[in-house]
Design brief:
- The chain has 169 residues and is mainly beta.
- The protein folds into two domains: 9-69 and 128-166, Roll (Chitinase A, domain 3); 74-122, Thrombin, subunit H.
- The chain has helices spanning 45-51, 66-70, 146-151, 161-166, and strands spanning 9-19, 25-28, 33-36, 59-65, 78-82, 96-100, 106-114, 118-122, 131-143.
- Strands 1, 2, 3, 4 and 9 form a five-stranded antiparallel sheet that branches. A four-stranded antiparallel sheet has the order 5-8-7-6, with no helix packed on it.
Length: 169
Amino acid sequence: MSDTVEDEKFVELNYKVIDNKTGDILVTVDYPLGYVHGVNDVMSEEVTKELYGKKIGDIIEVSIDTAKLYGERDESLVFTDHIENVPEEYREIGMTITMENEEGVPRNFIVTRFDDKTLTVDGNNPLCGREVTFMLEVLSIRDATEEEIELGGAVGADPELNEILDRAK
C-alpha cells in the first residue's frame, strides 16, 4: 500500500487561500476536504498535479489564476439600492442573497457594503479578480473504496471546492 498521493487514493486535505497582494488569508476550511485523486475534479488541474506523489504532512503552495476559475470580474453584477428597499435581515456585510434572473436561474450575491442610505451587493465570486495562492496540507492518504472511486469522494459527501470558495468573504 502506497502512502503517497496517486490515482484512486482517498486523500484528505486542509487548505487556505491567501491573497498574494496583501498576504491576507481569504479562505480556510473548518473541516478536511476529502476526494479521490485522479477521479474527482474538485480541484484545479494545477493543484492536482502538485499533489501527486506527496505524503502525509506535506504542504504545497500553488498560485491560481482566478480568472481561469471564475472568469473576469464583471462590474455589471454589482448593484446598489436604497436601503429601504432591502429587508432588515439582509443588512449585514457578508450576507448572501440569492436572486433569479429572467430565466429563473439563481445567482448568489454578497452584501459588500451598506450605510443608512444604500446597500451594495456583488454577484462576482469573492476571489474573482484577485491573485491568490492555495496552501494545502495532506492530512491522510488511503486506498479508496470502489464506491468512493465511483463517487469521486467520501460516501455520503459531495466535495465541491467552488461551493466552499463561494462562501469566502
